[in-house]
Write a structure and sequence with these properties.
2 copies of one chain form a homodimer. Chain A has about 325 residues and is α/β, with parallel strands linked by helices. The first copy, chain A, is built from 9 helices and 12 strands. The radius of gyration of chain A is 21 Å and the shape is elongated.
């Protein structure tokens, strides 16, 4: 039995060689092969663990039983039109969730507490002890109420923020005002001062963070103008609209971890915009050891006939 | 019966006139007078509400029953050698506690997630997707386990940090490794990557944040060098030592909300130090309306013969 790794476009700590060593340690009785670098027999491959897999490669494995994506977002896998019809599993683990909650908490607090203004004052040696509002005066809207959104909501509520959430299907969450579907979107946006985006990239969500949506955010909040925090996927956002809306006051500020094109090109005006915080798609850097362990555990379960967890619904795209 | 206000050195939202209006609204049957601006009869004053009170003023009130300080720290009141021997009450309220927890959470996350490094990379348009460690790899040490320290510990534990605490007297706190007294200080410091200071300023704590103490912090952590976050009082710290320790690597970075002299003088090298975040003593801006309500409630209780809450132990200084 072979586990085939096809891992592309990642940095050193995510090198295919390191992944191979991790998986081999977790699964000593399985042959762990890397696509392109070793000979392996296609019909011996039962499982594949991938990141941005080579289009067409997975279709050549006649006995493939399941594909494990090594991150939370499966948009790059689903982009392969020849993807075989076997279960596609995404990463859901406590470590990734905790890291995303750190990012969301940090950036919500940072805008709430006006840190960019404070840092600008510091550079000019200005002691501006401006009034600060309480967290209960700020409405945080979480777009996406999966594992990530729910965990972030819990911490934001603990800090005293007013939290609402939007999801495709109706969900209820203690302490959170929830909205759902296309019918609930405008009401959700109209009650949101800080919009936190944690939805998957699908044909339905591509480009949804545009001028039309930003124009529906609350304009009567203590922050003056609404704030966008996107830790989902760059394909969700229209960067030209973000820049134009920052400049005409439709948006007050933005924290962006993801971009239409990554790495963000040097020509992008987002880099030096005074009210944009750019981070290099590391909001929730996954712990590769934890992911390898979780995937290995699922492979062992599946071999014993137990069901896989976190299988993607291809009709929804996540 | 008169409530005398003696409020000095505060900004607009804390103006004596606004405080007078607030207290008058809460206590319609009490005469609310401002020191220095109205005639009042000294022997009619039963209560005083103060911020940085004029030395000697309170000693001239023969029938004074209690003094209410309008902030958490009473060091400025206790500095008056003629302070009459009546109960001195400090502010403890949920609003102030929540705001301090926001500040502590924001600044712990900010150093943990290397935001200063990220912002510097952004200014140079560098996409540096460096590895990020998990919160459980970072040891946050809370110096001070009163209301503020305990609330901050709760949120930091929820975020996954390893949390320890030090207090003068032994305390226990679920999930927190606690140390106490002079005997426990070195062990506490040796297990701390990010030191968060929330102790009161007393003769025993003045100047304790010095080179000797910084040199005892953990040096084997993932952050490289330890971080200081002081949201207590400026008198706790020796700023020349902070600067020297940042420059020789004893400290990695600092977030300072309080200073030896406030406003921080333009001549201070802290302003432009690349690894110092200066905020203008607004970590826990109190909601003046909430404080006025809490003080008015205590005055009403005391008039009915009920005990005062949050009375300062003058032998300890807090």
């Amino acid at each position: 039995m072979t586990l085939l790794l096809d891992i592309n476009g990642a940095d050193d700590s995510w090198s295919p060689v390191r992944w191979q060593a991790r998986f081999q340690a977790e699964l000593p009785h399985v042959r762990v092969a890397r696509a392109g670098s070793e000979t392996y027999t296609a019909d011996e491959v039962r499982y594949a663990a991938v990141w941005k897999p080579t289009p067409g490669l997975l279709a050549q494995l006649p006995n493939l039983k399941a594909i494990f994506n090594l991150g939370a977002g499966v948009d790059a896998v689903l982009a392969d039109a020849t993807l075989p019809d076997v279960p596609l599993v995404r990463v859901v683990n406590a470590d990734l969730t905790r890291r995303m909650t750190e990012y969301v908490t940090l950036h919500v607090l940072l805008h709430h507490r006006r840190l960019p203004m404070m840092l600008a004052a510091q550079r000019e040696k200005r002691w501006d002890a401006k009034d600060q509002w309480a967290a209960r005066a700020v409405r945080v809207g979480l777009m996406g109420l999966g594992e990530l959104g729910r965990d972030a909501a819990d911490v934001l509520l603990r800090l005293g923020f007013r939290v609402s959430g939007w999801s495709r299907n109706a969900k209820t969450l203690a302490g959170v005002t929830t909205y759902s579907g296309a019918a609930g979107l405008d009401a959700f946006l109209g009650a949101t001062d800080i919009l936190v985006v944690l939805v998957p990239l699908t044909p339905a969500t591509r480009g949804m963070l545009n001028r039309n949506l930003f124009g529906k955010l609350a304009r009567d909040g203590v922050l003056g103008a609404p704030v966008l925090i996107n830790a989902g996927r760059g394909g969700l956002q229209v960067e030209a609209d973000i820049l134009a809306c920052l400049d005409d006051g439709t948006l007050g500020a933005a924290s962006l971890d993801v971009f239409e094109k990554e790495p963000l090109p040097a020509t992008s005006a987002l880099w030096l915009h005074p009210r944009v915080i750019v981070t290099p798609h590391n909001a929730a850097d996954s712990d590769a050891d934890e992911i390898a362990r979780a995937v290995a555990t699922q492979i062992q379960w599946h071999d014993r006939g137990e069901p896989l967890l976190h299988v993607v619904d291809r009709s929804l795209g996540y």
